[in-house]
Amino acid sequence: MSTEVAMPDKDKKVTIVFVINGEDVTVEQNENAPLKAARDKALEQSGNTGRPFDEWEIRNEQGELLDPTAKIETFGFTDGVRLFLNLMVGAGG
Amino acid sequence: MRLDPEVSRAKFDQEVQKLRGRSIMLRSWCCFEREITFPNVDLVFVPSRSALVMIPIAVQLGPAGSSGIQLQATEVSWLTTRAFGVRVAMSDFDLRPPSVEFRDAWTWELVSDAGMVTRGFRPLPGGDIQNITPPGLHPRTERPFLCAQGVREYHEHPEHSGDDWMRHRGSIGLVEIVTLIHDSCVSNCRANLVLGAQLRLGMGPFAPPQLAQVGNGSP
């Protein structure tokens, strides 16, 4: 008797729409990659390369900060999810 | 005005459109539009962070039976800081950075330092926390202010004359300023209440309650 075990799809991709300065930038990324891989791709694609990519924070529609180093699959995004990129405001005081 | 009013108006409309495009975020932050009329964006924030109440409890400190007082920290969900108003003035944007004024949410009057119902905190690398609503008034406005890059009161403060707005222009707009206000004055701030012989009230950076406990052991 054989038992079929569902193996995780290593190449499963998700489409993410990043909103950068009010403009939509759509990227497709492997779900096993960290979220920052998709962010960096979106920034390159949109020509926002003037600042280090790590200065851009990622938030969901609710305004919650997302960890750029976490794997995309951990967020449970559905295809076409909208995320927002903003430059972090630096220190003052 | 230093900038052509038509240009300033067009940029203002663009920034407002971007902010309104984030309506889900604003709703989940309990940030409400009071009035938006060029060049001002008037918002009200309703904080929901539970207050931290510290209650002194008598404890036995050692086998000898000596006793002491330990503060037990408890979060009280129905006690929060008061709602506050903010005017983000976008006059001459983006030749000049946006200005941030703290206002009373009900009367819409400018608040004095004593009238501040919130403070702005932000975490620094290494675990320290910075107060970005420093004690003392701004030398030009003579009001409490938000001391952070991208804010007019920061860039026009004599102590920050070396950090010109032009270094940040194009990367900081209305959405970034509203995010800064939310993160520092709502998310990272909460009311502290210390019960004792004298009641102490204040606002401090947000930290889980166990970090605020004094002493060791449990009562």
Describe the 3D structure:
The complex is a heterodimer of chains A (93) and B (219). Chain A has one domain: Roll (Ubiquitin-like (UB roll)), CATH 3.10.20.90. Helices cover 12% and strands 31% of the residues of chain A. Chain A contains one helix and five strands, in the order E-E-H-E-E-E. In chain A, a hairpin with a 5-residue loop joins strand 3 and strand 4. The longest helix of chain A has 11 residues. With 93 residues, chain A is mostly beta strands. With 219 residues, chain B is an alpha+beta fold. Chain B is built from four helices and ten strands, in the order H-H-E-E-E-E-E-E-E-E-H-H-E-E. The chains are: A mainly beta (93), B alpha+beta (219). At the A-B interface, strand 5 of A face helix 1, helix 2 and helix 4 of B.
Structural features:
heterodimer, A: 93 residues, mainly beta, Ubiquitin-like (UB roll), 5-stranded mixed β-sheet, 12% helix, B: 219 residues, alpha+beta
| Tally of individual helices of chain B | 4
- Class from secondary-structure proportions of chain A: mainly beta
Q: Specify the overall morphology of chain B.
A: elongated
Within CATH, the superfamily of chain A carries the name: Phosphatidylinositol 3-kinase Catalytic Subunit, Chain A, domain 1
What is the radius of gyration of chain B?
21 Å
Q: How many domain regions of chain B?
A: 1
Strand percent estimate of chain B: 25-35%
Helix share bin of chain B: 10-25%
For the largest sheet of chain B, list the strands in their spatial order: 1-2-5-6
Number of strands of chain B: 10
Order of helices and strands of chain A: EEHEEE
What's the pLDDT, averaged over the residues of chain A?
90
Brief description of this entry?
The complex is a heterodimer of chains A (93) and B (219). With 93 residues, chain A is mainly beta.
